[in-house]
Amino acid sequence: CDAISICVPTPLSKTRDPDVSHVRAASEAVAAALRPGQLIVLESTTYPGTTREVMQPKLESTGLKAGEDFFLCFSPERVDPGNETWTTRNTPKVIGGLTDVCGDVGQSFYERFIDKVVRVSSVEAAELTKILENTFRAVNIGLVNEIALIADRLGVDIWEVINAAATKPFGFMKFMPGPGLGGHCIPVDPHYLSWKMRTLNYKTRFIDLASEINSEMPHFVRDKVCEVLNRNRQPLNGSSILLLGVAYKKDIDDVRESPALDVMNLLQQKGAEVKYHDPYVSMLSGESATLTSEKLTDELFSWADVVVILTDHSDFDYARILE
């Protein structure tokens, strides 16, 4: 083949540091078959410097030189799972080359099947672009989550406040609070940037604070469940809790980094019996057990002491749930 696109997982280690082992392994596999004239593009979200510091040395260990014998670029994957409006073709594609020639070749490749290609000056600029996109979301979700905590203390309806603020036609972007961050990008990518900056003796205070707030939201959900039970003089220990939706976002089946896992584990740790229903997720593995999605029946609703909506799937009959 003339072009190779690498899009492998870039998770976090147990210490919440970047794990680029899959990128290294993919680079080694490509190097084993690398030939002159090939285009190699990394699409995995990662910290600035990965393409140059991790991939280039492994590929050039073959004796071939990037920018002369082969072409190396970074072009972040931007697909939004479940989004039928913005597809691979019509979502603008950012690309940066290790050299200008690399960038030219990479841009020409993507322009064959992408409506708009956005060229940046370097692989580091392209890497940081994707990190900025996802960190922007994580920080703003952290902000609106903290406002939700504030509104709760003040006895104010946060949804009313957000909808009112969103009527301003400029200077405000609507973000919604939730039980935490989920998915393989938004909860992970800010940690890649924080780690990189720590190696440069810089602390990303704002980013780290947003991550801390988002990580606390499952605890807030558990505490709200306790609050509801306490009104009826019922302890969480021994109570029956039904979770509706466990995917990390609506109308998909992906549970990676889903805050529903933390909510389930926190409730079970306090002795609650937890069941869930999700039309897209048939099984869910927690710390103490693997659960199977329950069929929504009147008996299930009668069983539950508290019903918690974690993911707002379009399939849910909210009128029935409220009954």
From TrEMBL:
Kindly list the residue ranges recorded as spanning the membrane: none
List, alphabetically, the SMART domains matched: UDPG_MGDP_dh_C
Q: Which InterPro entries match?
A: 6-PGluconate_DH-like_C_sf (IPR008927), NAD(P)-bd_dom_sf (IPR036291), UDP-Glc/GDP-Man (IPR017476), UDP-Glc/GDP-Man_DH_C (IPR014027), UDP-Glc/GDP-Man_DH_C_sf (IPR036220), UDP-Glc/GDP-Man_DH_dimer (IPR014026), UDP-Glc/GDP-Man_DH_N (IPR001732), UDP_ManNAc/GlcNAc_DH (IPR028359)
Q: Which SUPFAM superfamilies match?
A: 6-phosphogluconate dehydrogenase C-terminal domain-like, NAD(P)-binding Rossmann-fold domains, UDP-glucose/GDP-mannose dehydrogenase C-terminal domain
Which GO BP terms apply?
polysaccharide biosynthetic process
Q: Identify the keywords attached in UniProt to this record, alphabetized.
A: NAD, Oxidoreductase
Domain UDP-glucose/GDP-mannose dehydrogenase C-terminal as annotated: residue spans: 242-321
Which molecular function GO terms apply here?
NAD binding; oxidoreductase activity, acting on the CH-CH group of donors, NAD or NADP as acceptor; oxidoreductase activity, acting on the CH-OH group of donors, NAD or NADP as acceptor
Q: Which PANTHER family match?
A: UDP-N-ACETYL-D-MANNOSAMINE DEHYDROGENASE (PTHR43491:SF1)
Q: Return the NCBIfam families for the record.
A: NDP-sugDHase (TIGR03026)
What's the name of the protein?
Answer: UDP-glucose/GDP-mannose dehydrogenase C-terminal domain-containing protein
Q: Which organism is it from?
A: marine metagenome
